[in-house]
Write a structure and sequence with these properties.
single chain, mainly alpha, 10 helices, about 10% strand
């Protein structure tokens, strides 16, 4: 009995290393080139298809050859450690974050991928949400409860406008605040925010003891607004809009 054959585990590792980076790792001797080529294409095409479905805008910016090259670059880096297909898009975003110079012609690549991933993440999220009836008085006098299916993020590029005919090369002068959320009918929505609205929503998410009025008063003081009552009335309109949109679901005392 020969003892020179690699163990099954070693054979697996050699096979996977070649699939991941054929230029660096030669194919296992026991597998003929024709069969190995089928495996290589099958793996890359399955990942490329999954990521194309997950990031349709990003995919639209590439021709077939360049898209495959981007996916091969991701595959080589060993970011894709997860055995779960739904987790692969998240790891792809992490790869682009770590390699933000991978495509100098698309400096927005990571931010666009992150923006598209947020939609995917919330669409597939297992949390169920319900809304209870509240009025404007409750939104001011009680603590507004923001849905757990709300994400707010700032971007340096106008990610919501990028398409093949519009690929900005320079960051915006001011950060873009985007809120992404899933409503009670399982629909995912996006909206840009002004800085005050973004700060108010961040306050409500992170501070679970302030009533709506207390949160608005604090923001008015922090930013030296000349008319606190006017600021609170404007803020109440925002809270009511968020409640109508399922960004706020209820209030607590």
């Amino acid at each position: 009995m020969s003892h020179n054959k690699p163990s099954f585990k070693q054979a697996q590792l050699a096979f996977a290393a070649h699939i991941r980076n054929p230029e660096l790792h030669p194919k296992p001797d026991a597998i003929e080139e024709r069969r190995m080529a089928i495996y290589r294409d099958l793996f890359i095409n399955s990942i490329a298809g999954l990521l194309a479905d997950s990031f349709p805008v990003l995919r639209s910016l590439y021709n077939d050859v360049d898209w495959q090259q981007l996916i091969r670059s991701y595959f080589k880096q060993e970011h894709n450690k997860t055995p779960h297909f739904p987790e692969i898009p998240r790891e792809f975003v992490a790869f682009l974050k770590d390699h933000q110079q991978i495509d100098p012609d698309k400096p927005f690549l990571y931010e666009l991928a992150h923006y598209e991933w947020l939609e995917l993440h919330l669409d597939k999220h297992c949390i169920e949400v319900e809304k209870t009836a509240v009025d404007g008085s409750s939104l001011l006098n009680e603590v507004p409860v923001v849905s757990p299916l709300v994400r707010i993020h700032s971007y340096q590029f106008p990610v919501h406008q990028i398409k093949p005919s519009f690929q900005p090369q320079k960051p915006l002068d001011q950060p873009l605040f985007m809120v992404v959320w899933r409503d009670t009918n399982y629909q995912v929505h996006f909206s840009s925010m002004n800085p005050f609205s973004a700060m108010l929503l961040e306050t409500l998410i992170n501070q679970s003891t302030h009533s709506g009025q207390q949160a608005l008063e604090q923001l008015a003081v922090d930013h030296q607004h000349p008319d606190t009552q006017q600021f609170i009335q404007f803020g109440l309109q925002t809270l009511e809009q968020w409640y109508a949109q399922d960004i706020i679901l209820t209030t607590t005392k």
